């Protein structure tokens, strides 16, 4: 996720406000910001199916067929069993509120089926905004918001741990919220105001784990604590809502260092807890499962398989079956040698069966889950595990890319329709061919979208497979030729001669490519490639050039380190590069062999400045300079003029011209008035119309945007956690 400078006015849902005690004042709720009425557009996801880490699933205990899911960066969803589909609940969060798209925790009220609570906040770092609590009376259709004075971390270590938000079992007006750095908070007015719990033993936390779970057992509330060194207490309990004490006799040692999740079997009065030696999802190498009898306080270890040797892992999810006392399921996590599994017991944990051993996986609806092979994996990063309270054989678990479900404990398939969480970084809309869209994402590489309404039939691009794409480019005058780069196990670059349907790896690559693959460009006829190298920590390296389809590479000393190469769409001898450190546009007239400075004195100091070339024209360049606005050059970057129609431009792309227009449609994420939104211009940026609306904002959308060169009005928008959104005029 990239930081962004706030725009001039936020778009928010209203919130009830109040005063939080103990030095934690609540921020007053802000009213919904007004904006110009958008031109009518219908927005949908280009279907991939999942693709991100699902960190929690919560079945409602008193409503059949109702469930909720949370993700680390892509908001929350509501499941409708009648339609077998997830509905996104937080797409209304706008540009200034991008940090709230990560959901730290969820809670429902068993006594009031319409009530839903979300604790939101993606990062706990100093540069991120504080967290917030969203509360709904209509299952997430509308929200009321209270801003907190503490930070949450839905995309940080421990994000797959238990729900840190809980409705008190004795009083529906009382809520508990566990935080990473600031101990335990309590609200007595349904989340409108919050106060620090001064008597909680675990506060404050320096490591960023703090409270890892909250669970109710009859009239008591239990809280897991993630900062224990394995010798001290990490599970606390209150029976009166005021006094907290360490639970006697709790397990200790490395395998029980961090309590991950908990579930209470009301019929047998047993509380089940999973543990690991680290919060996860990465880094776990030991773990255990324990059962606490709440009647007599007796602890029993019920670990299905103990980690050890080459089979190192932790334990993650846990759920109990309210219809069948003593039936419990737990999951392993970070188990790479033997692959993660779900264990099921029908006798309170005395014996276990691994469901993976008999599982039949059907990923035909989301073929990318084969990961370039013939068979999918059962799961990894399994921390979200849930059992339908109305159907003992309806079990689901989240992974780093999907949500698997079963109705018979044997046959499994993605239960993911409507849930799209890809973090998208590249988009190309070809002018010809079967696919109208190619996309590149941070977690699932490159996709060839042969349709927009179903997951790509070819799955992710293979030969090689990329875990994360860093570059994607098409030769403007030879659209069958496409190149891509990224983090791969068997090479970091590939080319296609059939528009991205099939791929072949570059025959060679610079040594730095293994550790710092960056963006790539191909000139108009595909005869020259420019590959830039940037390490994930920001270190910039020289660019390299190839004129033999990636077989050999030569350093280009005159290319500015870290810049993104831009090919002229009409002249194969021309490349451009924008040096964001100095605010200089450089150009090459020898197909990328050398670069010289042209325009200088342009905005500098931000790596997110982007140059885009208008299709079909030579030397027609546009510079999106974020809050510095938009600039245009018609002389190949020798000079730029500022465009006065908008004051901020974050990303820009082109599509088919409107009927009668003499210039391609321009699509932009930027600000023409007060709000950052998606706009279209049909007159060369003289005027703009907003084409998204207040219910379709998707947080951070500043990565890339492009129109369809074959369909006027259709636009593809990359989001950070809500996949590829595409809009069409209604």
From TrEMBL:
InterPro entries: TAT_signal, WD40/YVTN_repeat-like_dom_sf, Xyloglucanase_GH74. GO terms for molecular function: hydrolase activity, acting on glycosyl bonds. Keywords: Carbohydrate metabolism, Glycosidase, Hydrolase, Polysaccharide degradation, Signal. The keyword Transmembrane does not apply. GO terms for biological process: polysaccharide catabolic process; xyloglucan metabolic process. The keyword Hydrolase applies. PANTHER family: OLIGOXYLOGLUCAN-REDUCING END-SPECIFIC XYLOGLUCANASE-RELATED, XYLOGLUCANASE (EUROFUNG). Belongs to the glycosyl hydrolase 74 family. This is 1,4-beta-glucanase. It comes from Streptomyces cupreus.
